TrEMBL record:
<protein>
    <recommendedName>
        <fullName>L-ribulose-5-phosphate 4-epimerase</fullName>
        <ecNumber>5.1.3.4</ecNumber>
    </recommendedName>
</protein>
<feature type="domain" description="Class II aldolase/adducin N-terminal">
    <location>
        <begin position="14"/>
        <end position="197"/>
    </location>
</feature>
<dbReference type="InterPro" id="IPR050197">
    <property type="entry name" value="Aldolase_class_II_sugar_metab"/>
</dbReference>
<comment type="similarity">
    <text>Belongs to the aldolase class II family. AraD/FucA subfamily.</text>
</comment>
<keyword id="KW-0479">Metal-binding</keyword>
<dbReference type="Pfam" id="PF00596">
    <property type="entry name" value="Aldolase_II"/>
</dbReference>
<dbReference type="InterPro" id="IPR036409">
    <property type="entry name" value="Aldolase_II/adducin_N_sf"/>
</dbReference>
<dbReference type="InterPro" id="IPR001303">
    <property type="entry name" value="Aldolase_II/adducin_N"/>
</dbReference>
<keyword id="KW-0862">Zinc</keyword>
Length: 244
């Protein structure tokens, strides 16, 4: 492995290890459940790798050195510990979604309750329109151990704005451009799952009209935040440098 490649892997191991603390911080996992993985991009998009949590290790025991490096077929390339039991599912997502740089799995209680009921979370609040741009869908039931869960994730999210899927009677999987974005999606998934559940205890919940969802999603993805606000505030220019 080249020096640049080694440095890239080490950076991702540091990041993935640190992000597992966010799962605990936001109450998304219990005991040793849940995992975060991240893609390590290879030269010219080839030979990508994956860094993932080891199986069954307590969160308090996780270190960058304990993270496991695999190829995108799930074969261990570096690490003394066995990788997560969800490795095949993560690897399948990376192989079939080159836009995905991070995958997260949790059993967060409210979102997993929706998954257990086999019910999509309706896009009924503006925060869902912002982050998910749609309902959070339900994927098929699949057993752990091979890439069946990954197949369900990819098929369910194909053409869907949501970065989260509720795998039936299992839990939550989220994807993102990187591991941090996937963790954020997992945090927000649990937050909106809780809010919509509580709202239903008070009465009927109506989904937002689609044109509102579209406007919310567009604003949040393209204007919200410092980069988006700066772009929105900068006048467009013509090829001659004049303001459009």
């Amino acid at each position: 492995m080249s020096d640049d490649r080694t440095r890239a892997v080490e950076r991702v191991k540091d990041e993935v290890c640190a992000l597992h603390a966010e799962l605990l911080r936001w109450g998304l996992v219990a005991w040793t459940s849940g995992n975060v993985s991240a893609r390590v991009v290879g030269a010219d998009g080839a030979d990508d790798l994956m860094v993932i949590k080891p199986s069954g290790l307590a969160y308090s025991e996780l270190t960058p050195q304990s993270m496991v490096v695999c190829d995108l077929d799930g074969k261990v390339l570096e690490g003394d510990l066995s990788p997560s039991s969800d490795t095949a599912a993560h690897a399948y997502v990376y192989r079939h979604r080159p836009d995905v740089g991070g995958v997260v799995h949790t059993h967060s209680p409210y979102a997993t309750a929706w998954a257990t009921a086999g019910e999509a979370i309706p896009c009924a609040i503006t925060a869902m329109g912002d982050e998910f741009g749609d309902d959070i869908p339900v994927g098929p039931f699949a057993l752990i151990g091979d890439d069946s869960i990954g197949q369900g994730i990819v098929a369910t999210l194909d053409g869907h704005r949501s970065p989260a899927v509720l795998m039936r009677q299992h839990g939550v999987f989220t994807i993102g451009k990187d591991a941090k974005a996937a963790v954020k999606a997992a945090v927000m998934c649990e937050d909106v799952a809780r809010t919509v559940h509580l709202a239903r205890q008070l009465g009927q919940v109506e989904r937002l009209q689609q044109h509102y969802v579209d406007r919310l999603y567009d604003r949040y993805q393209n204007v919200y935040g410092q980069d988006g606000a700066a772009a929105a505030a900068t006048p467009a220019t013509t090829s001659e440098g004049e303001s459009a």
